[in-house]
Amino acid sequence: MDLIYWSIDNIPYKKVYLSQDTPKQVVVNDLWVENKEYGTTRDATLELEKTIGANNFTYPKPVKLLKNIIELATNENDLVLDFYAGSGTTAASAYKLNRLFTLVEKDVDNFNLIVKRMKKVVANPDIPSKITGSFITCHIE
User: How many domains does the chain have?
Assistant: First the structure.
């Protein structure tokens, strides 16, 4: 079966077929503007404040957005990697979805914020995650 489609501009695209053999496969819309479904940076700021209290982190990503991306791209127990961890939204979302995660963050203040956030997330009895393990941390100056 030919799975490559060539556009008029000679750009290759992969053909995607929805069938009963691939129930998880979906065609994803490339415009994500529904605030109720994906959240806003304001929502994310309020989520972060609710979790860890007052902080100086600007423009965190909404948990709803990261949860959608992680659910589309991974399965339970997969590993999610975030090289710019920021406020730790990827880790919090991955944990809630039973995904393993590895974060990289060079800013010490952000790193400390992530540790504080994840301690609260992991300790929350309302989050039934099956992920267990340890925080391993390293800072090089």
Answer: 1
